């Protein structure tokens, strides 16, 4: 892979890595009495290893110029490996966290394994580790194919990929050490946040430069969503994470937003992390891999426009539905609620667009587990957005908020939608990327599908039950108009569901492990395909097609 | 017409970028900016007091251990919330909270008004092993809190950072941060009086974990738990909630 | 259109573009979606008119209904109090004996008391009131401060060693630590106390030790616990002869108690709970003990 880099790119990489090594040493020295120092060592080790690897083949011959007429797929392959590593790690931690709620002694009374610390390790591991790598890898794939252009350069994709994974690693190890800002889905501390800004800006620039090289006059829908994902996540991340560290040698910082304003900023961020990370990004995936696999045209271009702009505009208003009945002023809650209801239209429009695209390919859905993954994903996308809009209605939220119902909703979204669409996309992408005829074992794909579906259903039914029971127990009144149950009564009622959820999660995890094995074996040697699946890169400037109308 | 426009938009990556930024900016601006300009957003109360250095350290431990993952600190304007946990939370009560810890999940009960509800002794036993006092509990045990000595040296930096964000800590408070933290957990020493002088008579000075030889993380966390809901009495005034104002001297 | 192309399955035209093999149909937005769009927007519009919603610089639109969540909750709470008032008024005004004699009121006490106890007291005394390490059993009918709902209500109101001005104070001095007794004396008196509830442990071999312990007891402890070790409910000094223990009656715990003293903390509920709630709880706790017997 290093052989593909030009001498200039190798030198640039060396410079950047040396800079990182120095930063690592500086952090380790300045923070020697603080967890910051440990993160310095992490940075040092990661960049050191890469540097050694690079230096060992620094003087390999220049790559053949012919490479420029091919897609640049090496970073995508590495990205897929990262995706699956994080999937297994993150879901394992999820199962562990679930088990701790049923059997609390499973943390072995150790600080770094206690529930409050592994929970963010789980959410970050799956959302940013698994989801983020999948988005980066597929976006590199999709933008090249739909633009018929090679990535704009060879350095930035690696910088984005490794830089991003360094962020995830620092974030997750930080939570285990107790380094956290406590802002959900943005828990990483100031230095990791800053680093992510640099990585993200590079990502954006790379993406735009590649799009600018496109040979198709129009930008395909999938790229609209990837762009929205990259841009809006940058906005959200920067605003929510503005904080001042207590000193440059400490990991600890204080956010600039106080109290009620912090609550609003956090959930403006938190909800839209869902919207632009877990929804827009994965819709991009859906818009490419689903029609590709089904070999059907998108049902309606006009519906695509309606849902894209609806989602981009409406989503940003609804964060306050996480704060119903709180000390946030009532007017903001009402805005959040009404926009959440209107948001259902574009949400369902995109789910419907996906499902109707399958018209004419239903027999494939029946026979092909890969396409079935994507079909089920679209169903769960529709279901969880409906559920979301429903939960955003204040009286409904008065029951669901703070209970497992929220967690059930979350996992209908993340297991049923995010993880399923990712697996479907990967099973489509992997054989074509490694030039295989098919996945190593289609039986294992089938097994993975059923484990994932069963796991999801068990998980969400358990949480719907527990959440609704819990919510009802908290508000049940006796005939004499006094509360019926104490809090502890509701806790005792939760145990059977916590056990069931652990089991469902375990099935899902086993499925992910099987999937990783299958992907690994495919890469290592499924039957080679000679057929060219993608249209080739178009060399040199092609005059943009004349306007359509 | 719209379609024609969109077809054009689709052909320019930068145009698309600006369109996305424009569409995505409106919501946040309309909902966030007015929270700084509408005065009634945060109530004006005269008796709001500051976290002492020890309480602030405890708050940071609460964050570090992820207690917010299971506990909310937000009593909603709902009848059952108020009747179970006390008067609904006001915005002013988290005015100095960076970050806010309102929470999003109640695996355990709300803690917004836990201050003064139980004894220090109970909290220590509970945090050391919840199942010893509440057999039904699934809360993790935190035995290391009583073992870890609290890092007093850095507290000045914490107060200074807060001060620069507009929290009204005085320079004197910043200077005495470590001493005040020590004093609050050591009632029989000369340092104790400085704490009440600077932070008010209602500050709870106590041995917290029952051990006077060193200030531990347990001391800090219990001090924080005992002040929750007691920074101001505002929530108890002019409400139909049945409770009277809390006397904050425990 | 670049290319006029028709999808054979749906019979629809495509938009004429293609991205690595992916095409799009030119299907118009289905009417259902548009209707749905209108309906949700009308709903939102209606809500904006009725309720507080839009910010206007330093204020916001208050909505035609002129209500907000704080007003709502105050109304709800007032309503909830009225709905209970039939019961609460009776609890408030009637005497303990009257209430205990009235089965329907006691039903209220049991229902409401169970939740109040669960959310406030169970943390220390256990969900069933039987207590555990360091927290007294409330069902054993052995009282530190005297049984009966009235006494209990007073304990709840002022607490024990609590922040309340009138708090009950109960301190078992630290005889060993504060060097009022030496190590042998502590051991002897513990042995004596132990023998009160475990007669089998007194053997001819340790008779002299127990006798020595008894002497220490009479001179040092009897002032509070009484000569017969029956305790004093005026001082909250427990009965040491009945085999109901707060902290424990084994030798090890006895020595710890006598050496280091005890100062149990029972919070005051005066300000956290209303008078009616305290009365209800007192009756509930009293009832627990009665039921057990
Ligand atoms: C193996 C499957 C999984 C299991 C067993 C699992 C388990 C859990 C558990 C126990 C929690 C904490 C809930 C609580 O506090 O009560 C949680 C939270 C969460 N998980 Fe998972 N999880 C799994 C997969 C995933 C995946 C694949 C994603 C995302 C792609 C994900 C995203 C989240 C999020 C966002 C939360 C936070 C929810 C909230 O704060 O309301 N999980 N999960
Ligand atoms: C129309 C779309 C959606 C709406 C209106 C919506 C609305 C909501 C609401 C009302 C809550 C509960 C807030 C609370 O009571 O605390 C929530 C929580 C959540 N939703 Fe959704 N949802 C939508 C789609 C999704 C999707 C597709 C996913 C995942 C892929 C998702 C992930 C989450 C997560 C992670 C949380 C938990 C946040 C937290 O408390 O930590 N949502 N959503
Ligand atoms: Ca952060
Ligand atoms: Ca949450
Ligand atoms: Cu949301």
From TrEMBL, chain A:
It is found in: Cell membrane. Keywords: Cell membrane, Copper, Electron transport, Heme, Iron, Membrane, Metal-binding, Respiratory chain, Translocase, Transmembrane, Transmembrane helix, Transport. Cu cation binds at residues 271, 321-322. PROSITE patterns: COX1 (PS50855), COX1_CUB (PS00077). Its EC number is 7.1.1.9. GO terms for cellular component: plasma membrane. GO terms for biological process: electron transport coupled proton transport; oxidative phosphorylation; respiratory electron transport chain. Heme b 2; high-spin binds at residue 409. Binds 2 heme groups per subunit, denoted as high- and low-spin. Belongs to the heme-copper respiratory oxidase family. Its cofactor is heme b; heme; Cu(2+). Residues 38-549 form the Cytochrome oxidase subunit I profile domain. Heme b 1; low-spin binds at residues 122, 411. It is a multi-pass membrane protein. One of its GO terms (molecular function) is heme binding. The chain crosses the membrane at residues 12-30, 36-55, 76-103, 123-143, 155-178, 190-212, 224-248, 268-290, 299-318, 338-361, 373-393, 405-429, 449-474, 494-520. Pathway: Energy metabolism; oxidative phosphorylation. It holds the Pfam family COX1. This is cytochrome-c oxidase. It catalyses: 4 Fe(II)-[cytochrome c] + O2 + 8 H(+)(in) = 4 Fe(III)-[cytochrome c] + 2 H2O + 4 H(+)(out).
TrEMBL record, chain B:
The keyword Ligase does not apply. It holds the Pfam family FixO. Keywords: Heme, Iron, Membrane, Metal-binding, Transmembrane, Transmembrane helix. InterPro entries: Cyt_c-like_dom, Cyt_c-like_dom_sf, Cyt_c_oxidase_monohaem-su/FixO. The keyword Membrane applies. The chain crosses the membrane at residues 12-36. One of its GO terms (molecular function) is electron transfer activity. Residues 53-229 form the Cytochrome c domain. Signal peptide: none annotated. NCBIfam families: ccoO, PRK14487.1. This is Cytochrome c oxidase cbb3-type subunit 2.
Automatic annotation (TrEMBL), chain C:
Belongs to the CcoP / FixP family. GO terms for molecular function: electron transfer activity; heme binding; iron ion binding; oxidoreductase activity. It is found in: Cell inner membrane. This is Cbb3-type cytochrome c oxidase subunit. Binds 2 heme C groups per subunit. Residues 108-197, 208-289 form the Cytochrome c domain. Heme c 1 binds at residues 121, 124-125, 266. Keywords: Cell inner membrane, Cell membrane, Electron transport, Heme, Hydrogen ion transport, Ion transport, Iron, Membrane, Metal-binding, Oxidoreductase, Repeat, Respiratory chain, Transmembrane, Transmembrane helix, Transport. It comes from Pseudorhizobium flavum.
């Amino acid at each position: 892979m290093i052989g593909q880099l030009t001498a200039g790119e190798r030198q640039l990489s060396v410079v950047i890595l040396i800079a990182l090594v120095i930063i690592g040493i500086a952090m380790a020295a300045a923070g020697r009495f603080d967890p910051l120092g440990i993160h310095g060592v992490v940075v040092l080790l990661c960049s050191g290893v890469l540097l050694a690897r690079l230096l060992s083949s620094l003087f390999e011959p220049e790559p053949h110029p012919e490479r420029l007429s091919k897609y640049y797929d090496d970073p995508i392959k590495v990205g897929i490996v990262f995706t699956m590593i994080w999937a297994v790690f993150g879901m394992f931690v999820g199962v562990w966290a679930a088990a701790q709620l049923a059997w609390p002694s499973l943390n072995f009374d150790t600080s770094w394994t206690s529930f409050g610390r592994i929970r963010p390790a789980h959410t970050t591991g799956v959302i940013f580790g698994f989801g983020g790598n999948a988005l980066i890898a597929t976006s590199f794939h999709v933008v090249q194919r739909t633009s018929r252009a090679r990535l704009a350069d060879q350095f930035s994709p690696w910088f984005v990929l490794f830089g991003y994974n360094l962020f995830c690693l620092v974030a997750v190890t930080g939570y285990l050490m107790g380094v956290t800002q406590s802002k959900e889905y943005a828990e990483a501390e100031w230095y990791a946040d800053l680093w992510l800004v640099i990585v993200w800006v590079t990502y954006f620039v790379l993406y735009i430069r590649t799009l600018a090289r496109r040979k198709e006059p129009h930008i395909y829908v999938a790229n609209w969503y990837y762009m929205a994902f990259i841009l809006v996540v940058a906005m959200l991340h920067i605003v929510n994470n503005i904080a001042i560290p207590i000193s440059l040698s400490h990991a600890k910082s204080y956010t600039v937003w106080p109290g009620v304003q912090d609550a609003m900023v956090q959930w403006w961020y938190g909800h839209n992390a869902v919207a632009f990370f877990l929804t827009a990004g994965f819709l991009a995936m859906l818009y490419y891999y689903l029609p590709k696999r089904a070999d059907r045209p998108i049902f309606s271009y006009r519906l695509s426009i309606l849902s894209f702009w609806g989602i981009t505009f409406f989503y940003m208003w609804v964060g306050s539905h996480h704060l119903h009945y709180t000390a946030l002023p009532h007017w903001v809650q009402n805005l959040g609620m009404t926009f959440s209801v209107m948001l259902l239209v574009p949400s369902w429009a995109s789910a419907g667009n996906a499902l109707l695209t399958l018209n004419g390919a239903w027999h494939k859905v029946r026979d092909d587990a890969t396409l079935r993954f994507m079909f089920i994903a679209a169903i769960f996308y529709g279901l969880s957005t409906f559920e979301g809009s429903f939960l955003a209605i204040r009286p409904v939220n008065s029951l669901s908020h703070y209970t497992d119902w929220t967690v059930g909703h979350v996992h209908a979204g993340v297991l049923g939608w995010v993880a399923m669409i990712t697996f479907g996309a990967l099973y489509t992408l992997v054989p074509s990327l490694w030039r295989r005829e098919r996945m190593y074992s289609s039986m294992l794909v089938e097994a993975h599908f059923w484990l994932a579906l069963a796991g999801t259903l068990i998980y969400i039914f358990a949480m719907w039950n527990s959440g609704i029971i819990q919510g009802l127990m908290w508000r049940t009144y006796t005939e004499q108009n006094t509360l019926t149950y104490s809090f502890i009564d509701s806790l005792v009622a939760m145990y059977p569901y916590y056990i069931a959820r652990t089991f469902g999660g375990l099935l899902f995890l086993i499925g992910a492990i099987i999937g990783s094995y299958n992907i690994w074996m495919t890469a290592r040697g499924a039957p080679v395909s000679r057929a060219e699946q993608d249209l080739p890169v178009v060399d040199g400037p092609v005059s943009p097609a004349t306007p359509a109308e | 017409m719209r379609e024609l426009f969109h077809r054009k938009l689709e052909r320019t990556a930068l145009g698309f970028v600006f369109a996305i930024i424009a569409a995505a900016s409106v919501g946040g601006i309309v909902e966030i900016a007015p929270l700084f300009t509408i005065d009634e957003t945060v109530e004006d109360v005269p008796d709001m007091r500051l976290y002492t250095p020890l309480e602030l350290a405890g708050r940071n431990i609460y964050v570090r251990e992820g207690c917010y993952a299971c506990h909310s600190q937000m009593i909603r304007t709902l009848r059952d919330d108020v009747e179970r946990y006390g008067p609904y939370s006001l915005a002013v009560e988290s005015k100095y909270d960076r970050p806010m810890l309102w929470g999003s999940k109640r695996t355990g009960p709300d803690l917004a008004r836990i201050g003064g509800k139980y004894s220090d002794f109970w909290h220590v036993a509970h945090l050391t092993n919840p199942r010893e006092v509440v057999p039904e509990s699934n809360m993790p045990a935190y035995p290391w809190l009583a073992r870890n000595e609290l890092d007093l040296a850095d507290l000045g930096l914490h107060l200074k950072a807060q001060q620069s964000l507009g929290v009204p800590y005085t320079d004197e408070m910043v200077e005495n941060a470590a001493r005040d933290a020590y004093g609050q957990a050591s009632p029989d020493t000369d340092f104790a009086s400085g704490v009440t002088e600077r932070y008010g008579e209602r500050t709870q000075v106590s041995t917290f974990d029952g051990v006077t030889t060193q200030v531990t993380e347990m001391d800090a966390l219990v001090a924080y738990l005992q002040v929750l809901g007691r920074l101001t009495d505002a929530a108890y005034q002019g409400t139909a909630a049945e409770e009277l104002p809390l006397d904050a001297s425990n | 259109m670049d290319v006029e192309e028709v999808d054979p399955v749906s019979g629809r035209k495509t938009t004429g573009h293609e991205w690595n093999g992916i095409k799009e149909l030119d299907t118009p937005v289905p009417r259902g979606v548009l209707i749905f769009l209108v309906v949700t927007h009308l709903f939102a519009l209606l809500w904006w008119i009725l309720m507080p919603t839009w910010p206007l610089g330093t204020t916001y639109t208050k909505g035609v209904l002129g209500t907000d969540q704080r007003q709502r909750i105050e109304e709800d709470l007032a309503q909830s109090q009225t709905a209970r008032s039939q019961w609460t008024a009776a609890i408030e005004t009637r005497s303990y004996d009257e209430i205990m004699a009235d089965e329907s009121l006691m039903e209220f006490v049991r229902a409401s008391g169970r939740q109040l106890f669960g959310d406030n007291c169970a943390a220390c005394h256990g969900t069933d009131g039987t207590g555990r390490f360091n927290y007294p059993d409330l069902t054993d009918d052995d009282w530190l401060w005297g049984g009966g709902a009235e006494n209990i209500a007073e304990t709840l109101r002022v607490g024990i060693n609590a922040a309340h001005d009138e708090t009950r104070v109960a301190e078992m001095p630290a005889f060993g630590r504060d060097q009022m007794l030496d190590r042998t004396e502590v051991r002897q008196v513990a042995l004596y106390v132990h023998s009160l509830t475990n007669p089998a442990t007194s053997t001819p071999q340790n008779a002299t030790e127990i006798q020595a312990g008894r002497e220490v007891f009479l001179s040092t402890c009897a002032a509070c616990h009484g000569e017969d070790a029956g305790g004093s409910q005026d001082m909250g000094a427990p009965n040491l002869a009945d085999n109901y223990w707060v902290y424990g009656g084994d030798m090890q715990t006895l020595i710890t108690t006598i050496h280091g003293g005890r100062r149990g903390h029972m919070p005051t509920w005066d300000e956290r709970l209303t008078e009616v709630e305290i009365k209800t709880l007192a009756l509930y706790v009293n009832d627990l003990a009665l039921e057990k017997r």
